[in-house]
Specification:
By secondary structure, the protein is an alpha/beta fold. The protein has a single domain, classed as Alpha-Beta Barrel (TIM Barrel), CATH 3.20.20. It contains 14 helices and twelve strands. Helix 3 runs parallel beside helix 10. Bound molecules: L-rhamnitol and zinc ion. The site of zinc ion (ZN) has 5 residues, from loops.
């Protein structure tokens, strides 16, 4: 008997359908963020520093500088990741053939290179307007700016981006998540907390006014950013209420955007009670929204567990969001994405019906006992089998390919 067969027997003895778990995992797309590959710089060539209170730290050599490099690097990572993949793009990754367009004049044609690329590799695409690293961010504000010309510029940007998302959806034949995150906030305690929020609300109303097929809209809240520590316009309550009042607009949960003792795992079922979709940015915050590489830690496992327990694999849209420049960027993609998938697999291998029954019967002893016992079952053997049938390296040997690529390609980028 192989290690896989023996592990499978142990899970099956608990009533877990291992084949169904492998199938579900293989069919669940993970939306992988393009911006890990180039430190959130994009292709505008403006030389603008990353702004908006987010930061990439580290200076590992070999970041992608062009669309060709980023696409090649992403392919390298994707070849080492099992299952279905989507690529999550930002507007700042437009590929201009010749004449550049400012953010408020972006068109679907500026993303045709990405469509060709995605079609060739069968990746889905998700899309984000880019409200940072641009001179029209004035005093740190965009959609909530009191300067009407600034606010209008960013409304035009988001309108353009929703149209691009709709065009991408049409070209790919499947929905595209269009997620709005803005950096707006204040370093100092503001004198007026309501005004900026009312301006943001009006901006969103204008942005979402157009009915666009294929677009899944979401808004992403945050608690604070670097340099905007005292007030965030797009707070949790603000966007939660906005999404609840606007059918078709979803509330995206980024697990770096809450107080450290809050659990995004717990927020998922709360939102599933009211929304048919819950989009996520899975990250690893260390003391702040530091966007470290996703780990197979309790938080990631809890997020995965809630998705699976709630039978919501098709309702929760899993995207990743981190940018670590201190390690090989391709390895960062591979480690983080595989960790998300490992967490999902572990969750799929839990006997949720039994656990739920014990909870309902008030049998908390057995519920606790088995929650703990599950942690030491041979989940790694099932994971390695999954990788093998998906045609990717099952263990850490995937790093060999990255090391070779580093030597032959990344180290030559100067
Ligand atoms: C920032 C948000 C946002 C960005 C990306 C680049 O705190 O998490 O999602 O990280 O859009
Ligand atoms: Zn995010």
């Amino acid at each position: 008997m192989t290690r896989y067969e023996s592990a499978k027997q142990r899970y099956e003895a608990l009533g877990v359908d291992v084949d169904a778990a492998l199938n579900a995992l293989g069919n669940k797309a993970i939306s992988i963020h393009c911006w890990q590959g180039d430190d959130v710089i994009g292709f505008e060539g403006s030389g603008q520093a990353l702004s908006g209170g987010i930061q990439t730290t580290g200076n590992y050599p070999g970041r992608a500088r062009t669309p060709e490099e980023l696409m090649a690097d992403f392919d390298m990572a994707a070849s080492l990741i099992p299952g279905k993949k989507r690529i999550n793009l930002h507007a700042s990754y437009a590929v201009f053939h010749g004449k550049k367009a400012d953010r408020d004049a972006l068109l679907p044609e500026h993303f045709s290179a990405w469509v060709d690329y995605a079609k060739k590799h069968e990746y889905g695409i998700d899309f984000n307007p880019t409200f940072f690293s641009h001179p029209m961010v004035v005093d740190g504000l965009t959609l909530s700016s009191p300067i009407e010309s600034v606010r209008r510029f960013w409304i035009r940007h988001a309108v353009a981006c929703r149209r691009i998302a709709s065009s991408l959806a049409e070209q790919l034949g499947e929905p595209v998540l269009h997620n709005i995150w803005i950096p707006d906030g204040y370093k100092h305690t503001p004198a007026d907390r309501l005004g900026p929020r009312l301006r943001l609300k009006n901006s969103l109303d204008e942005i979402f006014a157009e009915n666009l097929p294929g677009v899944l809209d979401s808004v992403e809240s945050k608690v604070f950013g670097i340099g905007v520590e005292s007030y965030t316009v797009g707070s949790n309550e603000f966007y939660m209420a906005y999404a609840a009042r606007h059918p078709g607009v979803y509330n995206l949960l980024d697990n770096g955007h809450y107080h450290p003792t809050e659990s995004v795992g717990d927020k998922i079922p709360a939102l599933l009670a009211f929304f048919d979709k819950v989009p996520l940015h899975v990250t690893h915050p260390v003391r702040w929204d530091s966007d470290h590489v996703v780990l197979l830690d309790d938080e990631t496992r809890d997020i995965a567990r809630e998705i699976v327990r709630c039978h919501a694999l098709d309702r929760v849209l899993i995207g990743l969001d981190y940018f670590d420049a201190s390690i090989n960027r391709i390895a960062a993609w591979v480690i983080g994405t595989r960790n998300m998938q490992k967490a999902l697999l572990a969750a799929l291998l839990e006997p949720h019906d039994n656990l739920r029954r014990w909870q309902e019967e008030g049998n908390f002893t057995e519920m606790l006992l088995w929650q703990e016992e599950l942690k030491s079952l041979p989940f790694g053997d099932i994971w390695e089998h999954f990788c093998a049938i998906q045609g990717v390296p099952a263990d850490a040997s995937w790093y060999e390919a990255v090391r070779t690529y580093q030597e032959n390609v990344l180290s030559k980028r100067r």
